[in-house]
Every structure is written in structure tokens, then in C-alpha cells.
Amino acid sequence: MARPPMPDPLALLDIDSLLTEEEREIQRGLADFLDARARPGVADRFERGVFDRDLARELGAFGVLGMHLTGYGCAGLGPVAYGLACLELESVDSGLRSFVSVQGSLSMFSIWRYGSEEQKREWLPRLAAGEAVGCFALTEPDAGSDPAAMRTRAVRDGSDWVLTGTKTWITNGGIADVATVWARTEDGVRGFLVPTTARGFRAVDVPAKLSLRASVTSELVLEDVRLPDTARLPHAEGLGAPLSCLNEARFGIVFGAVGAARDCLRTTLDYASTREQFGRPIAGFQLTQAKLADMAVSLGGCALLAVHLGRLKERDRLRPEQVSAGKLNNVREAIGIARECRTVLGANGVTLDYSPLRHANNLESVLTYEGTAEVHTLTIGRALTGIAAFR
């Protein structure tokens, strides 16, 4: 006898039972908000290549921006609650989760962790409310996986600093009010808060993207941008500072990838239960069920890994190589699920009427940014063998 399809494939392994009631309430509340406000029209925004700027204030009012930070208008919630928010955001679109990750885990975290008290008071409440948008400028045209090769320089001129260089693939760059810019100085890599209204600063959006289209990606050009010393992040010394910020954002990706894959599988389960061929729903064929079962098991494993890493982070026991393992595995599995879901959808799957191929395109960027699959593989390899194979 046929039964109704499982509404949430994560119920297969009862992932919900691993969460606290507060975490479940936060997840449900955000899911309802996104269903009402962000999910409608996301395919159209993807097709047109636009980001809904009004969502920043609404997400700020909901308490999502910098929700894992404390003080200065931030919610101060735990790692798993933040991860679940990333899951729900990316279930809508990776570009939306990217906006929140960059705002909270890169821009805000860099100020919260390395900024002066004055910098925190100036920027964090506005960023948490969505009244201001931040971006994080580390990657350069010739320095992606090797940020130590950056060419952007900050030179002392009296009591000021003068910044010159180019940053690329910067999420939120074209809509940002402040950019955390990392530059080489005589004393090593340092971070600077650059108002985007500063003379000599300009942002040019990357055109003709095939991925993360409902998100802003820009090139930042700094031509002799003069800043006072109060713009320097006083506690950021060396490359370890920006890398620690990236680790915060990567943690969110571990959960976010689960959200994208879950949405693909939900969409496909619904489709397979109603699409009929040869006189019966295609969900009733063994080959289709084999695909669905394999994907559900893979998705459940990704969710278990994400929650486990979140609990480690709660106890301050999460190591960088563990975050690398989570990002590498979950994004790789999510791409596989998205592609397999498209095969179940048949020709319909290549249209924007269904989400899997949109998610697959987005996940190609997620696989690359904040550490490529190759870099995370070598990070894990170094942890296992004690030998660094990067050079």
C-alpha cells in the first residue's frame, strides 16, 4: 500500500532529535520567514542576476546577521543555531546564504574579533541591523588559494595609511558600505576598514556569471586610498587573522550545503510522486527509488557531520582540519545530490521551474570559494601525515 512521501528527507535519520527545542524553534521561524519573503521569486532573481537589497534589513530585524556573535546588537546564539540558519538560507539559494555568511562571519567577525572598541561601536550595530552592508576583501586576481602572495599594499604616510591594489570575487562588494581589506605592510599582513565612499575606492560587479547569480560579486579597486590609522584593525597581525575569519564562514557552509541538497531532494520527491510514466508515478520504479534512497542516506550523513562539528564548536574543540573535512564532504555530496535530482526530473530539470540545477550551479562556486576542494583535501592530508603538500 502506498504511503505519503516523507515531507523532509532528513526525517529518515531523525536529525531533529539531535537539536534542542530552542534550535528547532529558530530553524522553524526562519524557514517560515524565508518561505514567505525570500523563496518566492528566487528563480526570477537568479535569472535576472539581481540581489534583493531590502532583505538585508529584514534579515537584520529577524536577528540573523552576526547571530553567533555577542554584544553590539548581535543575538549571541550558539554554533548549531547559526548553522541551522545557514541551512535554511541556502535551501532557498546559495547566494542568500553567501550574503549572510559574508556579513556575519567575515565582515562582522573581523571587526568583532580584531577591531578596536570604537570600530565595534561604529559598525557592528549597523551591520547587525542590516542598515549597513559589509564585505571581506582578501582574494586577488593572482592570489586565490595562496593569499600570502597578495600584492595589495598599505604604506605609511605620516599618521595615515595609503592602500593600493585590486581584490576580486568579493561577495557584497558592489553594495557594501564598509570593506575589510587585507594588505601587505612592512610589518606583515594587516586588516583595514575601508568605507566604500573613500576617495580612490571603486567596485565593479563581475558580469555574466553562471553561478551565484542572485548575489553580488565584485572586483574592488583601491587607487591610493588614504585612511587614518584608526581604520586599521589593531588586533589583526599576520595572515592568521583573515584565515581565522574564513574558518568561521566555512563552518556555515558545512550546514548550508545540507540545505541546498535537502531542497533538491524535497523538490524531487514531490515531483517523482506526481509525475506519471507508463501508467504509474515514477517514484514507484526501482531505479528511481534507488536514486532517492542513495541521496537520502548521503544527505543524512552530511547533516550528522554538520551537527557533530557544531557541537565540537560549542565546546571550543573544533579544529581547522575538521572544518575542512566538513566543507569538502558536504559540498561535494550536495553537488552530487543536485545533479542526480536533475536526472529524476528529466528535461524539466533544466528549467528554473525546479531548483536542483540552480543549486548545482551555485554549489560549483561554493566548492571553490573559501578554500577549494583541493586545498581542503591537502589540509586534511597535512593533518593525517604531518607533511604539508601545498608547496
Structure explained in plain terms:
The structure is a single chain. The chain is globular, with a radius of gyration of 21 Å. The chain has eleven helices and eleven strands. By secondary structure, the chain is an alpha+beta fold. It has three domains: 9-129, Butyryl-Coa Dehydrogenase, subunit A, domain 1 (Orthogonal Bundle), CATH 1.10.540; 134-231, Beta Barrel (Butyryl-CoA Dehydrogenase, subunit A, domain 2); 240-385, Butyryl-CoA Dehydrogenase, subunit A, domain 3 (Up-down Bundle), CATH 1.20.140.10. The model has no long low-confidence stretch (mean pLDDT 96).
Features:
Butyryl-Coa Dehydrogenase, subunit A, domain 1, alpha+beta, 391 residues, Butyryl-CoA Dehydrogenase, subunit A, domain 3, Butyryl-CoA Dehydrogenase, subunit A, domain 2, 3 domains
